[in-house]
TrEMBL record:
Keywords: Repeat. It comes from the Bacteria. One of its GO terms (biological process) is proteasome-mediated ubiquitin-dependent protein catabolic process. This is Phage tail protein. The keyword Nucleotide-binding does not apply. One of its GO terms (molecular function) is ubiquitin protein ligase activity. NHL repeats lie at residues 197-224. InterPro entries: 6-blade_b-propeller_TolB-like, NHL_repeat, Tail_protein_I, TRIM-NHL_E3_ligases, Unchr_phage_tail-like. NCBIfam families: tail_TIGR02242.
Length: 761
């Protein structure tokens, strides 16, 4: 008998042959969407929606949006000329030079008082143009009047013309908070004594870009209002301007030859760039608006209005007046049909029987999608596919629900087996509506319950195909249940469980999961905070009802749980060279200690030790000084002492401080919403027999009142300078001491050195 040493293979040992690949237990899948790519061989002229990348029918000839629309919205990519948006806040400048703000509760524009109006004052306008917002500021263009309508050579008329020529040719800057006038933007007077600002836009850094139709230029101002010069070439009539996320400047200029609007793009330094081919191509560079802008400048503000708006339609004209009904739609918006070709999709399995296709998207009434497939064991080119491909059509996908709800459909692939698959999708619409394809999932290979049946059911190819397709109806439902079971662990993870109620449920799964560990999540918190709070709090379940557990939960509620990691002192690195002997010792690394936040009252007992203690503040006799008991004919006073019969006075030193705590939190938790979260936490974490008090700590210390360092006394960082007229005197404002009348002439480390004689004063 031969002996084989562990870890060594004898030379005559047979080589192991790898097992042939077997079919997987579950079907695999390939995903086609905008994120991973559609793998198109031929797009067929179909359109991809901006931002989402979904596939729809192309625009009908003449109905596509254009950069040079009269509203100045660049085809709906940005707000119109006279409209500016700051988040969900909307501002509009109407034809009467009145500045208006959109009220979502009443779904209408409200006039801002004391701002705008016709005139030459600092807050008034003569000939307003475009507006823009950025960084809490509102920029309003005013091209003013030239005075050309005033005729005559009278000196008074000439003076009036000169005054009108000087007035209001500016960009007014208002604060959005209070609408105070901050100033006006103008270029250098020696270079451009007369200018007419038409449109304004802001970039991501706060820079302001203004078109000047008088000098045919684009001016650049810094965020502080300083003029930085002009950028770009000499334009003809620069009408509108916009800036995308990448800082590219878009200018709509009037073509001098054809007298039509044209688009020119340039870098921030003025270098020209090739303009995008269409609005769809440039949409990815702009942030999506919270509302829609139609081609004629009509504002669709239905998404900003409340549930019960006063306006009937939610549509507004360019002056901010509500429309009684929605504008009529054109007779045809999209092409009627179109198709695209994707492939080849590689399964990696020879003679693979592709299983099914699942589609997701939107399917309005009257639209349909037809999917066709072709399979082969070789990867052919697009030209070869067009020559000999035999397409097998699936059932036509038709609408099943309303136009705006998500739509899904699936169908079995009837093509013969093959390693590669080509997919041809044909979209058909009504001209006014179009189907939207968001994703297509192709499953392979076909794994059904046929493998569990006797072999006689799969002996004949035609019967086997029918039986497999018939069982696939049940296997699809079974596989969806299995997939839910496979992903069941994600429902019990606070970071992945659904945070929104599904169907008619009254509570979401995240809140229900928190109830498992006795937590109640505040609905006012963000989703990320609720998930993180539940994840961390579940780790403290073993400490529930203990002082340490309550302390940790308070740190988690206040957001101080990670402070030990963020503010820990890192030890200094040791050098390779030995330090000199006269160096001071390196201080020990003291880790960050969070504040105690809790004060258990039994720690306030001041016991008197026999033989060593003395009566005083550190040791007092109990009775009247502890619970303010009344002693008849001695110290009983109305509204000053309490009449207590139980328990007896001898138990006061033990019972008065027992089962009672005080919680110290920052003063910001006086807010009603945050205070409710704090009280809810204390009710759930404190035992029923424990009484708690809440103390709101402000950054100050008062001797005898608020002087326990670490609990109710906090050293705050107060501001050094207080601007006059803006800061009220109070606990957060301290006037600095007056400077000495004659400051010391010499200070070590500033203007004096040892060993040099000081100068004589």
């Amino acid at each position: 008998m031969s002996t084989i040493t562990a870890g060594l293979i004898p030379p005559n040992a047979p080589q192991r042959v790898p097992a042939p690949p077997q079919l997987p237990d579950d079907a695999l899948s390939l995903l086609l969407n905008a994120r991973v790519g559609w793998r198109m061989l031929d797009d067929g002229g179909l359109r991809k929606t901006p931002h989402e990348g979904d596939i729809t029918l192309p625009w009908f000839a003449g109905s596509a949006r254009d950069f040079g629309e009269p509203s100045g919205s660049f085809g709906g990519l940005c707000t119109p000329l006279q409209v500016a948006a700051a988040g969900n806040s909307l501002y509009l400048l109407d034809a009467t030079t009145q500045l208006r703000h959109f009220d979502p509760c009443c779904c209408r524009f409200v006039t801002i008082p004391c701002t705008g109006g016709h005139g030459g004052g600092g807050r008034q306008l003569r000939n307003p143009g475009g507006i823009a917002t950025h960084g809490g500021l509102l920029y309003v263009c005013d091209s003013g009047r030239d005075g050309l309508t005033i005729n005559g050579s009278d000196p008074r008329r000439q003076a009036l013309r000169e005054r009108l020529r000087r007035e209001n040719h500016r960009v007014s800057v208002f604060l959005l908070n209070g609408y105070a006038l901050r100033g006006h933007l103008r270029p250098a007077a020696e270079k451009y004594p007369h200018w007419k600002p038409r449109a304004v836009a802001c970039d991501a850094r706060g820079g302001v870009w203004v078109t000047d139709i008088a000098n045919q230029r684009v001016h650049h101002f810094s965020a502080n209002g300083h003029w930085r010069g002009t950028r770009g070439p000499l334009f003809n009539v620069p009408l509108y301007i916009a800036v995308d996320r990448c800082g590219v400047i878009y200018v709509v200029d009037l073509d001098p030859v054809h007298n039509k609007p044209r688009l020119q793009t340039m870098h921030a330094d003025g270098a020209l760039l090739p303009p995008p081919a269409s609005v769809e191509a440039a949409a990815e560079r702009f942030d999506a608006l919270p509302f829609a802008v139609l081609a004629d400048g009509t504002l669709d503000l239905r998404t900003l209005c409340s549930e019960n708006p006063c306006a009937a339609s939610g549509y507004f004209d360019d002056d901010g007046e509500p429309l009684s009904a929605a504008p009529p739609a054109p007779s045809q918006i999209y092409e009627v049909d179109g198709h695209f070709l994707s492939g080849p999709l590689d399964s990696g399995i020879l003679d693979c029987q592709w299983h099914r296709i699942a589609l997701q998207g939107l399917m309005p009434a009257g639209c349909s999608i037809l999917a066709e497939t072709f399979c082969a064991n070789e990867a052919y080119s697009a030209a070869q596919i067009d020559g000999f491909a035999q397409w097998q059509a699936l059932t036509v996908a038709l609408p099943r629900n309303s136009d705006k709800t998500p739509w899904s459909w699936d169908g079995l692939i009837r093509s013969p087996p093959g390693r590669y698959l080509w997919l041809r999708m044909s979209l058909r619409g009504t001209g006014k509506t179009t189907p939207t394809l968001r994703a297509a999932e192709i499953e392979f290979p076909r794994i059904t319950s046929l493998r569990y049946l006797p072999a006689v059911f799969a002996s004949e190819p035609v019967s086997a195909d029918f039986t497999a397709r018939f069982l696939a109806l049940y296997d699809t439902t079974t596989r969806s249940i299995e997939r839910t079971v496979d992903n069941l662990a994600s429902w019990f993870d606070p970071m992945s469980t659904p945070a929104k109620a599904v169907g008619g449920a009254t509570v979401d799964f995240l809140t229900w999961l928190a109830s498992w560990v006795g937590l109640s999540l505040d609905r006012g918190w963000s989703e990320a905070r609720r998930r993180d709070y539940l994840r961390r709090a579940s780790q403290l379940y073993d400490l529930h009802g203990t002082p340490r557990g309550l302390h940790e939960m308070l740190l988690l509620l206040l957001g101080w749980r990670d402070a030990a990691t963020r503010y820990s002192h890192r030890p200094a690195r040791r050098r390779c060279v030995e330090t000199p002997r006269n160096c001071r010792p390196v201080p020990a690394c003291i880790p960050y200690q969070p504040p105690p936040l809790l004060l258990e009252h039994f720690r306030l007992r001041r016991w008197l030790q026999l033989g060593t203690g003395r009566l005083g503040e550190q040791a007092v006799l109990w009775g009247r000084r502890i619970v303010n008991r009344s002693q008849l004919d001695t110290n009983a006073r109305t509204n000053r002492t309490l009449l207590l019969t139980t328990p007896d006075a001898a138990s006061d030193p033990v019972l008065v401080h027992a089962n009672r705590i005080t919680v110290f939190v920052p003063s910001r938790y006086r807010d009603q919403a945050q205070r409710r979260s704090l009280e809810q936490l204390l009710r759930s974490e404190c035992p029923a027999y424990v009484q708690y008090d809440i103390e709101y700590v402000e950054p100050r210390m008062r001797i005898g009142v608020q002087s326990m360092i670490g609990l109710d006394a906090v050293i705050g960082r107060l501001p050094q300078g207080l601007p006059l007229g803006t800061t009220p005197l109070g606990t957060a404002s301290i006037l600095s001491a007056a400077a000495p009348a004659i400051p010391p002439a010499q200070r070590i480390g500033r203007n004096a050195r040892l060993g040099t004689p000081p100068p004589l004063n």
